[in-house]
TrEMBL record:
Protein name: Pit accessory protein
Lineage: Bacteria, Pseudomonadati, Verrucomicrobiota, Verrucomicrobiia, Verrucomicrobiales
InterPro entries: PhoU-like_sf (IPR038078), UPF0111_domain (IPR052912)
Domain of life the protein comes from: Bacteria
Species this protein is from: Luteolibacter yonseiensis
Length: 209
């Protein structure tokens, strides 16, 4: 594989920033997991907001650096696409947190534990894939990670199907059903955002292999 570092020129900075962005995304999901585990009626979204702000700041730095450092047009698009995909993870996590703050009295935190476990695994896959970029990874190694991501997404989809069966069974209070549907959908989107970031990394490696 052609070294992406050589193509980016002074790109150690980009790799560091993208890795930092992936870690912020992971931290946001871990913060949400803690919120669900520890919530006792008092919901604090502070950690989620911090993670999103950190991600936004990193995305802005990447945009500024792209103006200063020479890269080919294709590589510029790749960096911007990955930065955007990573930013969408904590943004979606924070949106879930905001909705959960409104609806937490209607649901139980444990209802979301299976989805959260998958989201945590998916975030770790994203961190590993982004970290691999600076090491000129083999296509098969990236594919193995992306296959893991697809497997996680498949598990998440099956969970949602089960949740929908429960919601539309007619045995649930309508307001509770609406709240659960909204929150399940948002948490599914968090996992989808991780998948999107993994797909961008795979495409970058494929194009430069």
């Amino acid at each position: 594989m052609i070294s992406l570092a050589k193509l980016f020129g002074k790109s150690d900075r980009f790799f560091e920033l993208l890795a930092s962005s992936a870690k912020s995304a992971h931290q946001s999901i871990e913060a949400l997991a803690r919120l669900l585990q520890e919530s006792n009626g008092d919901i604090s979204l502070a950690d989620l907001a911090v993670a999103r702000r950190n991600e936004k700041k990193t995305a802005e730095i990447i945009s500024e650096e792209l103006v200063k450092v020479f890269v080919t047009a294709l590589d510029r698009e790749d960096i911007e696409a990955l930065s955007k995909a990573l930013y969408r993870i904590p943004k979606t996590v924070e949106k879930f947190g905001e909705r959960y703050e409104i609806m937490h009295h209607l649901v139980k935190a444990k209802d979301f534990a299976p989805q959260m476990a998958i989201a945590q695994e998916a975030a770790l896959v994203v961190v590993r894939m982004v970290d691999m970029l600076s090491k000129s990874p083999r296509l098969e190694d990236i594919k193995a990670e992306n296959d893991k991501m697809q497997e996680l997404e498949g598990r998440a989809d099956q969970l949602v199907v089960g949740y929908l069966k429960e919601i539309y069974s007619g045995s649930m209070d309508p307001i509770e059903a609406m709240a659960k549907r909204d929150l399940y959908d948002l948490l599914e989107k968090v996992i989808d955002r991780c998948r999107d970031a993994g797909n961008v990394v795979s495409q970058i490696v494929l194009k430069n292999s």
